[in-house]
Specification:
Belongs to the Orn/Lys/Arg decarboxylase class-II family. With 460 residues, this protein is α/β, with parallel strands linked by helices. The protein has two domains: 173 residues, Lyase, Ornithine Decarboxylase, Chain A, domain 1, CATH 2.40.37.10; 205 residues, TIM Barrel (Alpha-Beta Barrel). The strands form two sheets. Strands 1, 11, 12, 13, 14, 15, 16, 17 and 18 form a nine-stranded mixed β-sheet that branches. It has an eight-stranded parallel beta barrel with strand order 2-3-4-5-6-8-9-10. Helix 2 packs across helix 3 and helix 9 runs parallel beside helix 10. The N terminus is likely disordered. Bound molecules: pyridoxal-5'-phosphate. The site of pyridoxal-5'-phosphate (PLP) has 16 residues, from strand 10 and helix 11.
């Protein structure tokens, strides 16, 4: 069975709804650093993506972008499926209200213990990245609750004892798609199974009891720059489907065409519109899978950043302003432990967030005349490493201790993509507003708990 995306809900809050909290109000109420997430923006982004995709398309929300219960819960309520790749993300998805039958468990290096946990929780759809994934699923299939899996298999599926475990075979294309930056496909990669390998060894991908390859997973990249590059990867994916169906001797029930829908990250800018995407995709589908509108396969997509990137703002306070050897520094109460941690480790180009000064905080009239305060300022955090800095800005007005700064477009790959454990600072407060609901504020904590020895790990 495939969950269809319902028409987007009206996003106008009822007249009695509290007005959405602003970053300044949240900073006054809860202190900084804080992340503010606006659920109305999540709903608007979802409506934009529904409008940009073919009629009836299924949308997966990738929880790694932001697993916050209310952010993810908004997308569950709007009819998305969840795409998770750890037991922690599975817990977050279930806590957010996703039904286990609407969860797709994906990712490389799934351990047998993780797969068992997912099956016991009622997950019956997996993206499989190797023959071993299929073998482990076959071995553990009976952990799936028969009632749950029979329901998820749907009336059209040849349900065996307890129903089908649906596997989407993740394919690595045989060549990269032009225009992709961080290529995750078409090159040598840890992800998926090479297209050529499936064609060469189709018997390895046969049905295994309840475990069936019911579809393909064709995720190729993230944050793609233009509609043409998006369409180029979808075309490359669809072009492989016919050959794979012939090689495996089956029709697919689902084609997960991936995503890569871009949006600004950690700086000013608007979520892009994709005015030609729906028509372009429908044309490609008509060409490659002419039965998609009537008999299937169901067509699905995945997004993290497009759905939630624009909903978030990181708010931080200037703690100190100083000068060293001709360079001015604004030291703030946030840093690479809250935003841009991967970049902070120089695993990626360093993140240079685009900061805005808010009107709250320090007295705007005091000491802001041009002079020693003018000119570029390096914004740095409190961590005891020189890597904890967000770069130099010439766009900021002169700063004083107490000023509030905001980094817009930080709803995706913010807190959980950072070095939250490093140096032991408390996590920022996460404030959620919008959707006509009362504002909530919570703080994530990292705690240490005792772990029992298990026979499986005891090699003595
Ligand atoms: C990370 C990831 C996504 C989400 O990527 P975004 O750029 O946030 O949309 C989707 N699918 C898979 C398989 C991923 O690993």
């Amino acid at each position: 069975m495939t969950a269809r995306v319902p028409a987007p809900a009206a996003s106008t809050p009822p007249a009695t709804a509290p007005a959405a909290t602003t970053p300044e109000e949240a900073a006054t109420a809860y202190g900084t650093p804080l992340y503010l997430y606006d659920l109305d923006v999540v709903a608007a982004a979802h409506a934009d993506l529904v409008a940009a995709l073919p009629e009836g398309a299924v949308i997966h929300y990738s929880l790694k972008a932001n697993p916050h219960t209310e952010v993810a819960g908004t997308l569950a309520a709007l009819g998305c499926r969840a795409e998770v790749s750890s037991t922690g993300e599975l817990d977050a998805a279930l806590a957010a209200g996703f039904h286990p039958a609407d969860v797709t468990y994906s990712g490389p290096a799934k351990t047998a213990a993780e797969i068992a946990t997912a099956l016991r929780a009622g997950v019956t759809r997996f993206s499989v990245e190797s023959v071993r994934d299929l073998e482990v699923l076959e071995e553990l299939a009976d952990l799936a609750d028969p009632a749950e899996s029979a329901e998820s298999a749907g009336p059209g599926d040849p349900a065996g004892p307890g129903g089908v475990i649906e596997c989407l075979l993740r394919i690595n294309a045989d060549r990269p798609v032009p225009g992709m930056g961080l290529a995750m496909a078409g090159v040598s990669t840890k992800f998926g199974v090479d297209f050529a390998r499936v064609l060469a060894t189709p018997e390895a991908f046969r049905d295994r009891g309840r475990v069936r390859i019911t579809g393909l997973h064709l995720y190729m990249g993230t944050n793609l720059p233009t509609e043409d590059v998006l369409l180029g990867q979808f075309e490359a994916g669809l072009a492989m489907c016919g050959e794979l169906a012939a090689a495996l001797g089956r029709d697919f029930a689902e084609l997960d065409l991936g995503g890569g829908f871009g949006t600004p990250y950690a700086g000013p800018g608007e979520r892009p519109a994709y005015p030609g995407l729906r028509a372009g995709l429908e044309k490609l589908l008509d060409l490659h899978v002419p039965t998609w509108r009537t008999g299937g396969p169901a067509v699905s997509f995945e997004s993290g950043r497009y759905l939630v990137g624009s909903c978030g703002t990181l708010v931080t306070t200037v703690v100190d302003v100083k000068e060293s050897k001709g360079q001015r520094y604004a030291l703030v109460d946030s840093g690479i432990h809250h935003l841009g941690g991967l970049a902070g480790l120089r695993r990626l180009p360093p993140l240079r967030p685009g900061l805005l000064r808010l009107s709250g905080g320090g007295d705007p009239a005091v000491g802001r005349e041009a002079g020693p305060d003018a000119g570029p300022v390096t914004v740095a955090g409190p961590l005891c490493t020189p890597l904890d800095q967000w770069g130099s800005s010439s766009d900021l007005p002169p700063l004083r201790a107490g000023d509030l700064l905001a980094v817009p477009n930080t709803g995706a790959y913010g807190l959980t993509a950072s070095l939250v454990g490093f140096l032991g600072y408390p996590a920022p407060v996460e404030v959620v507003t919008g959707s006509g609901r009362p504002t909530t504020a919570t703080r994530a904590v990292l705690t240490r708990v005792p772990v029992e020895r298990t026979p499986h790990h005891d090699h003595a």
